[in-house]
């Protein structure tokens, strides 16, 4: 089957070769509305469908991706092992992506998870302060953050500032993840870091490399997710490496060593 770009870049011949159909028809075809075989859908249309499906899946998953982390913190009433500086840098990166995408009017399926990740990351940041007996600092953090977010989303902020903020995501992600990795290494365990959240974040950032290229064509967005995936992979590997280690296990080990000496 040939894809005829001269007629319309979003159209292709139907399986009978008699007419053209829009790539929008690929969705109902996959759902069984049409009886055309999936191999009859042009590759460009399949890419669009796969990208949209991944984008929607990532957004739906992002609603709950950090919930295990929040539940773990609240259950333990402790934020041991989590770095507030790392959370701040992660929040900077998420906010940059969200503001940049909204300013460029990218489709929600290309960045929607940033909204839900932002809300959950802000909650984690507050809980770290709260369980560190610094609730007033946590409340101040919430007020300052949402005030700054309002300014960034307003027409007052020039596009050049938004673009610079998106470009700064890369060093922010790298530094933030390295801080968390260093904290894990120093402690000899991952503390209250949720394995489920870590693995979901890694999978989501990997899938976003494809969807950002397909839906936005923005190389800066794609590069950000490449770096994010690499950094998330490091944390995921640490979770696996320290799987049988825990704060309680380390404390018991120290007590045994002191007792022997």
From TrEMBL:
Its main location: membrane. It comes from the Eukaryota. InterPro entries: MannP-dilichol_defect-1, PQ-loop_rpt. The keyword Translocase does not apply. It is a multi-pass membrane protein. Pfam families: PQ-loop. It is found in: Membrane. The chain crosses the membrane at residues 82-102, 108-128, 135-153, 191-210, 222-243. The keyword Repeat applies. Keywords: Membrane, Repeat, Transmembrane, Transmembrane helix, Transport. Belongs to the MPDU1 (TC 2.A.43.3) family. This is Mannose-P-dolichol utilization defect 1 protein homolog. The gene is MPDU1.
């Amino acid at each position: 089957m040939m894809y005829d770009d001269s007629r319309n870049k979003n159209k292709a011949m139907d399986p009978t070769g008699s007419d053209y159909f829009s790539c929008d028809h690929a969705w109902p075809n996959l759902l069984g509305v049409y009886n055309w075989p999936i191999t009859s859908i042009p590759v460009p249309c399949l890419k669009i469908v796969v990208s949209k499906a991944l984008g929607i899946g990532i957004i739906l998953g992002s609603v709950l991706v950090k919930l295990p982390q929040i539940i773990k913190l609240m259950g333990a009433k402790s934020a041991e092992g989590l770095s507030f500086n790392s959370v701040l840098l992660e929040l900077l990166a998420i906010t940059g992506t969200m503001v940049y995408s909204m300013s460029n009017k990218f489709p929600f399926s290309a960045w929607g998870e940033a909204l839900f990740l932002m809300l959950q990351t802000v909650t984690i940041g507050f809980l770290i302060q709260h369980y560190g007996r610094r609730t007033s600092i946590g409340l101040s953090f919430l007020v300052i953050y949402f005030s700054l977010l309002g300014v960034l989303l307003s027409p007052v902020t020039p596009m050049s500032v938004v673009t610079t903020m998106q470009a700064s995501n890369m060093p922010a992600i790298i530094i933030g993840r390295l801080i968390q990795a260093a904290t894990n290494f120093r402690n000899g365990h991952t503390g209250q870091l949720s394995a489920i959240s870590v693995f979901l974040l890694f999978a989501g950032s990997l899938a976003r490399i494809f969807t950002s290229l397909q839906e936005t064509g923005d190389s800066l967005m794609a590069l950000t997710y490449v770096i994010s995936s690499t950094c998330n992979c490091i944390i995921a590997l640490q979770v696996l490496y320290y799987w049988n280690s825990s704060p309680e296990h380390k404390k018991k080990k120290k007590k045994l060593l002191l007792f022997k000496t």
